[in-house]
Design goal:
Blueprint: H1 2-39, H2 45-203, E1 210-215, E2 225-234, E3 246-249, E4 269-273, E5 292-298, E6 302-306, E7 317-326, E8 338-341, E9 355-359, E10 361-362, E11 373-374, E12 376-381
Parallel strand pairs: 4-9
Antiparallel strand pairs: 1-5, 2-3, 2-4, 2-5, 6-12, 7-8, 7-9, 7-12, 10-11
Helix pairs in contact: 1-2
């Protein structure tokens, strides 16, 4: 602050000097002229004027130099004042930051004190651990000793129990072995009996008995035994009865049944072949006639083969041959396809009964099977 006042005083002096210089010079000149006049000294006016002018120029130059110096000092003082003012402005913020830091340090010191206290407490607990562990180890040793004694007692008891169990098992094994030997002997004896029976059965395997219906003949053909003869019955051509045909025995009478004149029954009618196109039956005059049948027995193995000219299986011979017949494709009756013998005897007359059979026709061919052909059939036996 003292420096600032000094600068202000110097500036004022310089200002006053620059303002009164001309007046001071004029006063000095007038005093000098008066002194010279009293002394009788003559002064060259022009020289004096030139000297005066030079003096004024030098004085003005000095004054300007002093003024420039004062201005420079003023600028420096102003800059210094601004810097001091800026420092004074930031001082409260610095003080506040310092206070915050001091508070943080104080809080950290408090936490450190709390940590030290907790550490001391933990250390005291840790110091107490060895004694606790030692007590627990001692208790565990006591328990282990007791357990060891109990295990020894239990082991002795188990040894005794195992010996008793082994004795019992040995006895049971001996009894089981004796029982198994007895069962094995019994099974061997039984197996021998069964093997003998099987051997005897295999020895008679060629004597298989077959029972079948010889359709289209009142007597069994091919040496088969006729159990009975009868007539073929089936459903009416426009009705939906049970599966047909049936060979009803030709003995007359009530056939073991009772009279039933009711409509709600399964009706059967004497059957006839409606036509014989495509079969040998036409040549034998067996068209549109009632179909005979016979129930046969033969001591052979038999099967029905269709669609071939003879029996295909080795060692099988034809017992009777004929043609497949079945229901008309537009009728409601469901006749099981039946092999009607072409050589059978005992055919009936044409009396127009309503159960009809028709030759079976292959409608479409495949590979070696030709289409639009009636189908031959054979009853084959070995």
């Amino acid at each position: 602050m003292s420096r600032l006042l000094t600068v202000f005083a110097l500036a004022a002096v310089c200002a006053l000097a620059s303002a009164d210089t001309a007046q001071v010079i004029a006063d000095l000149e007038s005093r000098l002229a008066a002194a010279q006049a009293k002394a009788g000294i003559t002064v060259n006016r022009s020289a004096r004027d030139a000297t005066s002018v030079n003096r004024e120029v030098r004085q003005s130059s000095q004054i300007l130099s002093i003024s420039a110096t004062v201005s420079d000092l003023t600028d420096r003082m102003t800059k210094l004042q601004d810097e001091q003012q800026a420092q004074m402005t930031s001082l409260p913020q610095s003080v506040a930051a310092l206070a915050t830091a001091a508070n943080a340090v104080t809080s950290s010191i408090s936490r450190i004190d709390a940590t030290l206290a907790a550490f001391k407490l933990l250390k005291s607990k840790a110091d107490a651990i060895p004694a606790t562990v030692e007590a627990q180890v001692e208790s565990l040793n006591l328990q282990m000793s007791s357990l060891s004694r109990d295990m020894t007692v239990m082991s002795n008891s188990v040894d005794v129990a195992n010996k008793a169990t082994l004795d019992t098992v040995d006895a049971k094994l001996a009894a089981s072995e004796a029982e198994s030997n007895l069962a094995t002997k019994s099974l061997t004896d039984s197996s021998a009996v069964k093997v003998k029976a099987m051997t005897d059965s295999l020895g008679n395997a060629g004597n298989t008995r077959s029972i079948y219906v010889n359709w289209g003949s009142s007597k069994c053909e091919g040496g088969a035994k006729t159990l009975y003869s009868g007539w073929t019955y089936a459903s009416y051509h426009d009705q939906r009865g049970g599966e047909t045909p049936q060979c009803l025995q030709n003995k007359g009478g009530d056939m073991g049944g009772q009279h039933g004149g009711w409509d709600s029954l399964d009706w059967l009618y004497p059957s006839r072949n409606d036509h014989c196109d495509g079969t040998k039956l036409r040549d034998l005059d067996r068209c549109n006639k009632q179909i005979p049948c016979s129930f046969c027995q033969i001591e052979k193995s038999c099967y029905l083969e269709s669609g071939t000219g003879k029996c295909s299986a080795a060692d099988y011979k034809t017992v009777y041959q004929g043609w497949l017949y079945g229901s008309h494709e537009g009728h409601n009756a469901r006749h099981k396809r039946t092999c009607l013998s072409e050589d059978g005897s005992g055919w009936g007359r044409n009396d127009g009964h309503g159960s009809y059979f028709y030759p079976t026709l292959n409608n479409n061919g495949m590979q070696n099977v030709k289409s639009d052909k009636t189908i031959k059939c054979h009853w084959c036996c070995k």
